[in-house]
Structures are given as structure tokens and as C-alpha cells.
Design brief:
Elements (H helix, E strand, L loop, with lengths): L15 E3 L2 E3 L6 E5 L6 E6 L3 H20 L2 H17 L1 H12 L3 H21 L5 E5 L6 E8 L2 E5 L7 H13 L3 E4 L5 H14 L6 E3 L5 H9 L4 E7 L2 H13 L3 E5 L4 E5 L5 H13 L9 E7 H16 L19 H16 L3 E4 L14 E4 L16 E7 L2 H9 L6 E5 L3 H10 L4 E4 L18 E2 L6 H4 L2 E8 L2
Parallel strand pairs: 7-8, 7-10, 8-9, 10-11, 12-13, 12-17, 13-16, 15-16, 17-18
Antiparallel strand pairs: 1-2, 3-4, 5-6, 6-20, 11-19, 14-15
Helix pairs in contact: 1-7, 2-4, 2-5, 2-6, 3-4, 3-6, 4-5, 9-10
Bound molecules: nicotinamide-adenine-dinucleotide.
Nicotinamide-adenine-dinucleotide binds next to helix 7 and helix 8.
């Protein structure tokens, strides 16, 4: 662990943003935000009530006609200004993310850049809503298809990328002409509130973006989903919570985009460039300290190279510098809270009980802070829970396989299907396996798939819909068909 410097003050709004005004919760409730590296309380934030949620929906509903009628070019220019503002404030935003989330500063800087890029991309997409016109097969009429904003959208985001998960939704929603209520995770509301303030500076009119931190997520989001003025839910979070929200959205037939959990396989064939595969493994596993839905969760390595790969990966993992995210040279911060740290420890202990062998790590250093050491496990039996559940921490379990078919079967043996990684120098094999994998995304000889210009999303129980690319814009639009005779 590195030595800890003096923490710096946190500067971000702590009230709710409703209709362009900063307000306290209607019942005066608040909650505390902790620094996961120290356990210290860094802010006290307004805790949005059901009444506040409905007031935010009203504000978004009132702002909708004006914003949806704003020329697309003008909407795009506002988004582009937001990209510029975020880029100018990268360091400030990155340090805020570290304080409330714990991640290492280089990861936080990377997140701000990635998050800002959604505004640049959707500034460009705002003018590409498109539509369609063609002749009916009978020749009797024309089929005219208009694309219109879907309406008031509720955005619910997780704590692992406090900026990027919000901008990946706000960018396309605003580009499409929708107005939004953002409910950030209660572990990390400060970044979302800072973004809310910055959006105002960029020229987003009052009520177009409302930000509602709340510890009462269930009732607040539930009430918004049962308000008929809400037409869209865009959720990123766990599969369990997403499933529950889909049930609730059914009552008012609310359109849902769901970015849920993952259990990514990282497959290394014996013909792969092993150095590139280990470097890729470090990115796919350790970006964001392993707290990513795209994190490699199971390393499937062809038997002939399994021992060598395991040794090299353990060496790289063991060399990582862990400490408080803001400190110089730190590559791995703490997990977001005690429950996350305990869950990682439990999965590792369970795997070891089941027969896995620890090559490096497997331990939580004494506090303060919710740290867990970078860990590599080999000979992990297929029955181990660590191969079925999202680890969401710095732990790499390795499993050896013999044939290509076995690798694909093992990779697909999960209810999730967000992303998979394949390392091989045989491009034909790489594409064949990519096609056979049940996942929404594949990294082929590449460990980073996230890109605002690409459709991000999962199959199976990893979600519905796509964020980013042109698809991301369409998630916030409805097609209206007009049958025309002329
Ligand atoms: P979570 O499901 O616990 O919470 C996500 C959000 O939902 C938070 O804002 C939370 O306050 C809110 N929430 C919790 N319970 C709710 C309820 N009953 N009703 C309404 N809202 C509720 O997830 P998390 O722990 O914040 O995030 C980690 C999870 O997110 C992981 O499973 C990860 O894979 C997933 N994730 C997915 C993607 C993706 O793009 N697929 C990206 C990042 C994270």
C-alpha cells in the first residue's frame, strides 16, 4: 500500500436538481457519502423522496415541448459545449470520482475522457435522427416514417462509472429531444450532481436534465415508472434489480433499455501472442480495479500454455501498486464499500475451499478502506461460485481447456452474455469463435471494447438494447408511420 497524502476538500453540489433549481429533499432527509479509501464521510447529500421524484418528472414533462422543438443542430451544439466543458474540467471531475468511488486516478481520468466523448458523439448524432420514405408494395401509397423523441426518460445508473454511465444515457436522450430524470447510485451521487451543474453551464435549459440522488431507490423509481408521463427507462446496474424494474415497467408499458451484469470469458488459444494476451488480460481484468460489467470474469486458457500464462499474469497482478486512488503512482484503489470487499473475499475463500490454488494475492489488507489484493487463482473447479457470479473485484480465476469446442461451451455456460474476449493469431478461428460466442460484444485480440461510436450491450440476461453508436440514439426515439397518398 502506498503512503496516504492529505485528502482534499470535495466541491460538488449536494442538493437535488429539479426544474433548474437546487433544492433540499421535500422531507428534509439526507444521506452520507463515504470515501472508500478511508471510510471518512466526504459529503451529506439530499435524499430524494417519492414527492421529489414526481416533481422531477413534472419538470421534465414541462420542459419537453421546448426541448424537442429545439432544432437538432442547436441541441447538438449544446452537447458539444458540454464535451468541451468536461474536457476542460477533466482533472477536477476525475478527482471527484476518486473521492466517492475509490478508483485510481488514471482510471478516473480515463473515465472522464470516455464520458465526455459521449457528448461529442451524440452532438454529431443529434442531426442524424433520420427517417424513411418508400412505396408500399401494393403501389397504393407511400410509407413515410418519422423519428420522434420518445418523451420523458428516467435514467438509473450504477456507482462503478459515476460519470460515463450517466453521459452514455444523457447524451443520446438529449440528442433525440427527450428530457430526463437521472437517479445516480447512492454510493456516488456527487459526480452526477457536478455533471448536472455543468450541463446548465453548457446551455441545457431548466428542467431538461433533473438529477435526483436517493437512498429510497425502490419507491422513488417505482413511483416514476407508474407515472404515465414517463415513457422510457434506461437502466444500468445488476441483473437482479433490472429484472424487478422490467416487471414494474410492464404496468405502464414503459420502453426499457437495460444494461445489466456480465460474466465475461477471456479465452486464450495456444497460438496467441502470449505477451499481448497477458497485457490484454490486465486491461480486461484490472481496468477500474475489476469493478466493470465488462471485466474478464473467467480466464479460459488452452492447456499447453495455461501454466505459463498463469505465471505471467500473477507476476503482473502482484506488481500492481495498491493504495488511495489520489496518491501518486497508485494503480489500484479500494473497492467501493465494505459489502463489495466482503463479497470478493467470500468468492475467493469459496473457490479455495472447492480446490482452487492461490498463485498471488487472496487477502484484504487491514483498514482503513475497503482494499482487496490483486489475486490469481488456478485449477478453479467448474463448481466454484466464482465462475458463475460477477466478481466485481481484482481477482482472476483460471481454467484450462483442451479444444476450441470446449472453450466455446465453457464460455457460453452462463446466464450472462455481455462481452467475451478471444486471443488467437489465427484470424479465421478468431472470427469463427466470435460468431459462436453468446455475447453482445467480442474483443478479438483486444481487451477494451467500450467506444461511444459502437453499439454497447448484452444478450441473454445481460440486457436489452444498445448504448452508443447510432443505436444509442434510436433507443430514445419512436418511429411514427404515416401512410400517405399523393
Ligand atoms: P445495482 O443494481 O445495485 O444499482 C444500480 C442502480 O439501481 C443504482 O442507482 C441503485 O440505487 C438503483 N437501484 C437499486 N435498487 C433499486 C430498486 N429496487 N429500484 C430502483 N432502483 C434501484 O447495481 P450497482 O451495484 O450499482 O452496479 C453494479 C452492477 O451494474 C453490476 O452488476 C454491473 O455488471 C452492472 N453494470 C452494467 C453495465 C452494462 O453496461 N451492462 C455497466 C456498468 C455496470
Amino acid at each position: 500500500m502506498s503512503t496516504t497524502l492529505q485528502p482534499e476538500a470535495v466541491s460538488a453540489p449536494t442538493q437535488l436538481l429539479v426544474g433548474g433549481l437546487w433544492v433540499d429533499s421535500s422531507d428534509g432527509m439526507t444521506f452520507e457519502v463515504e470515501d472508500p479509501a478511508t471510510g471518512e464521510v466526504i459529503a451529506v447529500v439530499a435524499d430524494g423522496s417519492v414527492e421529489d421524484g414526481l416533481a422531477a418528472v413534472s419538470a421534465a414533462y414541462e420542459a419537453l415541448p421546448g426541448w424537442s422543438a429545439t432544432p437538432p443542430r442547436q441541441r447538438g451544439e449544446v452537447l458539444r459545449r458540454m464535451f468541451d466543458l468536461m474536457t476542460e474540467r477533466t482533472e477536477e471531475l476525475a478527482r471527484l470520482i476518486v473521492r466517492e468511488n475509490g478508483k485510481a486516478l488514471p482510471d478516473a481520468r480515463g473515465e472522464v475522457t470516455y464520458a465526455a466523448e459521449f457528448f461529442r458523439w451524440f452532438a454529431e448524432e443529434a442531426v442524424r435522427g433520420g427517417g424513411d420514405l418508400h412505396t408500399a408494395p401494393s403501389g397504393a401509397n407511400r410509407i413515410l416514417v418519422l423519428r420522434q423523441p420518445i418523451g420523458v426518460s428516467v435514467l438509473v445508473t450504477p456507482w462503478n462509472f459515476p460519470a460515463a454511465m450517466a453521459t452514455r444515457k444523457i447524451g443520446p436522450a438529449l440528442a433525440a429531444g427527450c428530457t430526463v430524470v437521472l437517479k445516480p447510485a447512492s454510493d456516488t451521487p456527487l459526480t452526477a450532481l457536478a455533471l448536472g451543474a455543468l450541463l446548465g453551464d453548457a446551455g441545457v435549459p431548466a428542467g431538461v436534465v433533473n438529477v435526483l440522488p436517493s437512498r429510497r431507490s425502490g419507491p422513488v423509481v417505482g413511483a416514476m415508472l407508474h407515472d404515465p408521463r414517463v415513457r422510457k427507462l434506461s437502466f444500468t446496474g445488476s441483473t437482479a434489480v433490472g429484472r424487478g424494474l422490467l416487471h414494474q415497467a410492464a404496468d405502464c408499458v414503459v420502453s426499457c433499455s437495460m444494461e445489466l451484469g456480465g460474466n465475461a470469458p477471456f479465452i486464450v488459444f495456444d497460438d496467441a501472442d502470449i505477451e499481448a494476451a497477458v497485457a490484454g488480460a490486465m486491461v480486461a481484468k484490472m481496468r477500474n480495479g475489476g469493478e466493470a460489467c465488462t471485466a474478464a470474469n473467467r480466464f479460459l486458457v488452452q492447456r499447453g500454455i495455461a501454466a505459463d500464462f498463469g505465471r505471467r499474469l500473477a507476476e503482473a497482478m502482484g506488481a500492481m501498486r495498491m493504495g488511495r486512488g489520489l496518491d501518486e503512482g497508485v494503480q489500484l484503489g479500494p473497492l467501493v464499500n465494505a459489502a463489495s470487499r466482503d463479497k470478493v473475499a467470500e468468492l475467493v475463500d469459496g473457490a479455495v475451499r472447492d480446490g482452487a490454488r492461490v498463485v498471488v494475492g487472496a487477502g484484504a489488507p487491514a483498514g482503513p478502506g475497503y482494499f482487496y489484493s490483486p489475486t490469481v487463482l488456478v485449477d478453479v473447479p467448474s463448481s466454484a461460485a466464482i465462475l458463475r457470479e460477477e466478481i466485481f473485484g481484482p481477482v482472476a480465476p483460471l481454467v484450462a481447456f483442451d479444444t476450441e469446442q470446449e472453450a466455446v461451451e465453457l464460455a457460453n455456460d452462463t446466464e450472462y452474455g455481455l462481452v467475451a474476449y478471444v486471443y488467437t493469431s489465427d484470424l479465421r478461428r478468431g472470427l469463427r469463435v466470435s460468431e459462436a460466442l453468446e455475447s453482445g460484444m467480442v474483443g478479438l485480440n483486444r481487451a477494451l471494447v467500450s467506444d461511444p461510436a459502437a453499439p454497447f450491450g448484452g444478450v441473454k440476461q445481460s440486457g436489452l438494447g444498445r448504448e452508443g453508436g447510432h443505436d444509442g440514439l434510436l433507443e430514445f426515439m419512436e418511429s411514427k408511420y404515416v401512410a400517405v397518398t399523393w
